Amino acid sequence: MTDFRGDDSDSSYVSYDEDDELREALAKGLLKPGLNVLAKDKEQPVNNPAKLRSALESIILKAPWIERMDLVNDLAPLTPELAIQIEKHEQKRENQFKGNKKIPYVAPEVDPVLNDFKREILFHRQAQAAVVEGIKRLHDLGIVTKRPDDYFAEMAKTDEHMQRVRKVLLDKQEGIAKSERTRQLREQRRIGKLIQRQATEKRDEQRRKTLSDIKKFRKGKLSNLDFLDDDEEAPAGGKKRKASARGTKRQVNPKRQARNAKFGFGGRKKGSKRNTKESFLADGRKKKSGPGGGGGKQRLGKSRRAQAKNRK
Questions:
Q1: What are phi and psi of 43, to 5 degrees?
Q2: Cα distances (angstroms) measured from residue 252 to each of 206, 234, 236, 241
Q3: Per-residue pLDDT reduced to its tens digit, 9-47
Q4: Number of other CB atoms surrounding residue 81 within 10 Å
Q5: Quick one: which of 106, 143, 185, 269 could link to 111 by a disulfide (CB 3.0–4.6 Å)?
């Protein structure tokens, strides 16, 4: 008779015959109260040197050295350059400990950072010694280690593929050159604007200084107009004439000179007939020296001039 506990699980299947066997084993003392687990026999390790040697022989690649190219050698001698690098690295690590108190101090012989650097140096020295010994063995076997100058190697890729690769590289170079030209133009434009702004500020500053000096001269604070001599002469257009770079006097066009003699030099015409201090003084001198003035011979009257004319 069997009993099913659960739906379809195999672990829920219990047989009354097995229960009877368990009761008998418990009555005989073979089982103890509590959780009972089926114990498996432990495999004891066996040290069989003969089998180990045969297994080692089976995995060893029995091929000539030129196919294996394995080397067992000592380290290469420590060069002065590597010794200097190790010393600098140790000094740098010591400075880190001194400059930062948050980093706990570690002795150089147990410092993992220095140990990693020294380990890399050991790898480098061992590889260097292996290269020297390996090249010597290859030369002893008559194997050439340098490629001749006229060596020709056929490409594994097709010419079409290499043309596409070359086109991609050229496009990249062209893009880099274009971006560089754009950057240079942008920089030149920026520098040009900066120079133009500086020139404008300088010109404005000079204009403000000239106007300030003119105001001071009008108020009587300045006795002369020497500051105007420093300014360049400006034509009617308003732009300043550029002085000659060599400092030589500019030659005047003969046609321009003739027109200037006939029509004048241009400039402001309004108010040109007004009296000035010089014209007033000149008129006064003429009046004194002319008829009716204090100096010189007086002019005769009209009747006397007529009589003198008739006598002649």
A1: -85, 125
A2: 29, 16, 17, 14
A3: 444 444 556 778 878 877 887 777 666 666 677 777 788
A4: 8
A5: 106
